[in-house]
Amino acid sequence: MNSKKARVIAFYLPQFHPTPENDLWWGKGFTEWTNVGKAKPLFKGHLQPRVPADLGYYDLRIPEVREAQAQMAKEAGIEGFCYWQYWFSHDKQLLTMPFNEVIKSGKPDFPFCLGWANHDWTNKSWDIGTRKQKKQTLMEMIYSEEEYTKHFYDNLPAFKDKRYITVDGKPLFYIFAPSAIPDPQGFISLWQKLAKENGLKGIYFVGLGFSMRADEINAKNTLFNHAPDKAAENFGKILQMGFDAVNARGYNRADFMTRSWLEKVWRSVVMRVFKYTPVSKIKQKEINKYLYVKEEKEENIFPTLLPNWDRSPRSGRKARVYYESTPEVFEQQIKQVLRLIQDKPYEHRIVFLQSWNEWAEGNYVEPDLVYGHGYLDALKRQLMQ
Description:
- By secondary structure, the protein is α/β, with parallel strands linked by helices.
- It is built from 14 helices and 17 strands.
- The strands form four sheets. Strands 1, 2, 3, 4, 7, 8, 9, 10, 12, 13 and 15 form an eleven-stranded mixed β-sheet that branches.
- Strand 7 and strand 8 form a beta hairpin.
- It is globular, with a radius of gyration of 20 Å.
């Protein structure tokens, strides 16, 4: 019997070290901290800028930083990190250094898996200094059978690492945009074949799915303030592609449900007619009321913990700010998720934490100067008590 109540896997952003590409595109020395440090409050009581506590404005080139992160996560009851992988082709990859060091060094001795962020990078990727520029693609995803094969073999050393997170004995591989793959069934079949040829039981594929898709936030639904109940259909489409499970995201639906009709229409008019962007904010506890749907009780639908959300360091006034996001509010959300998954077998009692360290999205559980270890302590109390 496992002592933890859930298998919490935390998304991990490797954008905290300089790279030649970021130097070229965003300015010398750019990292995630560049946006975080210069953020400004948009309203009274808005917690910006966010300032890291224990590890400071860290650099992921330093092994001791990665060790300290793993230790904090382990103590909080987190099973492992899901490292975002920016793999565009065999010859074009970004932000690879932190994970390559984890594999090469064998440290930290802490479980992990990979999440393929399969989306193009554009000059709008980080929303900084580009608002008046025409959108341009900086790095494009390349989809082909040849690239799929190279991608698999590039990942094979990680899949065979004893630290790699498995489900039903298979390495878990997460895909950010399932429908962006031209032939997802073909991709998954090829990887399953290659996995078995290389001594693995297979790959356990998890795809991101929304309980309410962005295209459902249309004029008609907005006019009638109607959120269609299509979560089962949305998740089902991903499973039909050959995915073993879906990571459910609920913030589209929660955002829609917590915006008044007046705000939706008024904000749109003001932005288009007067070229002014009013601040859009909502209390985190209101968002939490609509984050989850009944389908997340199913064994192959994995919920998402969303402790906080504030992209204003990247997007300025365009951002939707969740405020009064406190460890106490987060703890209530954890309880809510644990109730959803309590009847699942432990192997599939998986929850994704969004995120470990997305500081420029105001979306992290690492210690900061305001709440200290509050979010980590909330996790520890609920997962390990």
